[in-house]
Amino acid sequence: MSRLPEYLRALHALADAGHETVSSEGLASAVGVNSAKLRKDLSHLGSYGTRGVGYDVALLIDQIESVLGLTQCRAVALVGVGNLGHALAGYDGFASRGFQIAALLDADPSRVGEEIHGLVVRHVDELPRVVAEESISIGVIATPAPAAQAVADQLVAVGVTSILNFAPCVLSVPDGVDVRKVDLAIELQILSFHEHRKASLIALPATGGSALTALPGGLATPDTQEAIGT
Amino acid sequence: MSRLPEYLRALHALADAGHETVSSEGLASAVGVNSAKLRKDLSHLGSYGTRGVGYDVALLIDQIESVLGLTQCRAVALVGVGNLGHALAGYDGFASRGFQIAALLDADPSRVGEEIHGLVVRHVDELPRVVAEESISIGVIATPAPAAQAVADQLVAVGVTSILNFAPCVLSVPDGVDVRKVDLAIELQILSFHEHRKASLIALPATGGSALTALPGGLATPDTQEAIGT
DNA sequence: CGCGATTTGTGCACCTCTTCACAAGCGCCT
DNA sequence: AGGCGCTTGTGAAGAGGTGCACAAATCGCG
Ligand SMILES: NC(=O)c1ccc[n+]([C@@H]2O[C@H](COP(=O)([O-])OP(=O)(O)OC[C@H]3O[C@@H](n4cnc5c(N)ncnc54)[C@H](O)[C@@H]3O)[C@@H](O)[C@H]2O)c1
Ligand SMILES: NC(=O)c1ccc[n+]([C@@H]2O[C@H](COP(=O)([O-])OP(=O)(O)OC[C@H]3O[C@@H](n4cnc5c(N)ncnc54)[C@H](O)[C@@H]3O)[C@@H](O)[C@H]2O)c1
Asked: In chain B, is it the N or the C terminus that has fewer CB atoms within a 10 Å radius of its CB?
């Protein structure tokens, strides 16, 4: 499940706070999910809880990290060291969660050779050698959208089977390759939609607004952290 | 639906390419979804397609933008102008999709006054005035995690009801306030999970691996762009 | 040693979302 | 004008996720 990383983060926070065990209720409220859902999720990994007590925080962390394959530190290659790439290269939140940015690549010759946070930017044509040398397991694309598909093809060609894409476009990759995308404009548009809906509901409480704002069940937008009330 | 922004992006691309109409099949393949799903989504906005022909691209763009509340350009306030904040402030992909970064705010006095892409960084204490002056409708949090909750509270206090959070933590906000979060480490961990699973399946094709790697139905992780094969 | 309080693990019902399949509608060609 | 092919819109079936409610299990305490 895609919720495991969130549980993991909450568990680390609890461990730092000194807790040895957590109840499903406690962990669930920390993550913001239903406790039954959390128990069902955890039960899929095996029975690592103790009835009457709760879950051992340290043990659960180990188990989840084992499931997620975080027992080994994974090396990621970042392609496209522009505006966003610089920020990502300097982000310390990766290393602390089991990921190491092992290579920076760019196509712009004027950027190649630049040193960023201890890493030297290399040319994207060196991808085959870099992937082999650093045993890269994940590729991150932070190039402009028109270049993203070509970069993805290059990554796939050298054996990378997991890609995180920041460019606002859909990538087509062969079966067996996993792509996740992060599109900030989409996030903002979803917020805009809810904002628009809230405004309509206030403005037209009687009429109910247009067909668009009165969609069935209130238009569930998953992944949202907190649903809007009423 | 949270898919509308993706349709919108594909439609803009089609419009730029000179297409006047699209079939549900064509648009669906461009976005990477089932055509029946797309038709059902669009039918919820009303009947804007012509049988035997398809959908009018320009009309559909207008309709979706209207639903998403993008007819007006929305002003967003960015709080936390650090590593990530700088990248976001310089991102031109917001303006082109109906959003204008109208204010930059930070708590660090040494950052206040700095000019970034034509905007001057102001102190976070000026939030009430800034929100009123610029009629902010969305707040973006790019501060370290420990400060995120306080910033969220401040945003809510001055009437912001939509928040995009980049800090790796859960925010608690009152009902009626919408929070979406972007956590890159979670994205990487989900990729790591699939990577781990692929490796296990190759290494242990007979035994089927541990209970973790053999979860029912193959552990759906929604939001993924392309499922892994077999 | 037994009992009650507490918490996990799970069967079950519900509900949403997805996908198939097809009738209805539209335009084009003859 | 009529038929034919193509595409939309939608009913129905299927799948999957969610939450309730409760039995099973464990600990602490008398
Ligand atoms: N800046 C942001 O905050 C932000 C936010 C969300 C999404 N994005 C997206 O992330 C991507 C990058 O944004 P940015 O602001 O960093 O752009 P940018 O123009 O600043 O940087 C792009 C970099 O990619 C490099 N590049 C171009 N083609 C390449 C290729 N074929 N191979 C390797 N490198 C190549 C360029 O040399 C440049 O250094 C864009 O798709 C953008 O839409 C950016
Ligand atoms: N840098 C990245 O690529 C990246 C990627 C993913 C997530 N994030 C997350 O985004 C957040 C910011 O990351 P960063 O690398 O930009 O950190 P940073 O330390 O470079 O910047 C944080 C900024 O927030 C400001 N700030 C601190 N407290 C504040 C407050 N109470 N009010 C207003 N401003 C305040 C600081 O002055 C600083 O300028 C972090 O939570 C980080 O985990 C960053």
From this structure: C
Tens-place pLDDT, residues A157-213: 999 999 999 999 999 999 999 999 999 999 999 999 999 988 877 766 555 445 555
- Within-domain flag for B105: yes
CA dist A198 and A194 (Å) reads 6
Mean pLDDT of B18-22: 95
Under 8 Å between Cβ of A125 and A157: no
| A111 CA → D23 C1’, Å | 64
Task: Specify whether B78 is located in the same domain as B178.
Answer: yes
Name the token pair of A10: 């909450």
How far, in Å, CA of B218 to CA of B140, rounded?
35
Listed residue (A187, A160, A190) closest to A174, CA to CA? A160
Same domain, B200 and B153: no
The sheet carrying A162-165 orders its strands as: A115-116, A119-123, A99-106, A74-79, A136-141, A162-165, A178-181, B224-226
Q: Are residues B80 and B166 in the same domain?
A: yes
Q: Which domain range does residue B193 map to?
A: 185-215
pTM of the entire predicted model: 0.93
Tell me: do B64 and B86 sit in the same domain. Answer: no
Which domain CATH number covers A8? Answer: 1.10.10.10
Q: What is the pLDDT of residues A38-72, one digit of tens each?
A: 999 999 998 898 999 999 999 999 999 999 999 99
**Residue A63: partners with Cβ closer than 8 Å, 6 or more residues away:** A45, A46, A48
What is the DSSP pairing of strand B99-106 with strand B115-116?
A: unpaired
- In this complex, the nucleotide whose C1' atom is nearest to the CA atom of residue B34 is C19
The answer to whether strand D lies under 7 Å from the CB of residue A36 is yes
